[in-house]
Specification:
This protein has helices at 2-57, 62-152. It is mainly α and 153 residues long. It has one domain. Helix 1 packs antiparallel against helix 2 (62-152). It is rod-shaped and about 110 Å long.
Length: 153
Amino acid sequence: MYTEMFEKTNTQFEQMLNPVRKAQSTMLDHVARITDFQMEAVKHYSELGIDNLRALKDVNDPQSLQAYVTKQTEVAKSLGEKVTADMNEFVKINRGFAEQLQKLAQDGVTAASEQAKQQTKQAVSAVENASASAGKDAGTGSSSSSSSAKKNA
């Protein structure tokens, strides 16, 4: 009896933890993707800055200064495009994460609803069995008491 109760409790506990585990896994994957994205962005921006400093180091006359300044407009344009692309990618990653969490929540609600329906059916069945059993017992007891009453009369 207790073994069945513990097994049922463990099963229910596992069912309760599965959505939490899925959410944790989704969050961990999201953090990993964001971290990879940020590491790549830092690497790119660092290389851009170092390349720019190297180009500045080579400035030693008016002509090289003119070339450096001209190149800075190209660098600024390239940087603006990269920042825009990175922001779009960041939004895309976060949107995908939000969609995954929403799907997990919907799945959780559906599973909880199904479990509630199943438990309701089990409870109704148990009540019906108990009332049918009580009705049989009451019917048996009343017929024997009524036959005893007839004998006494």
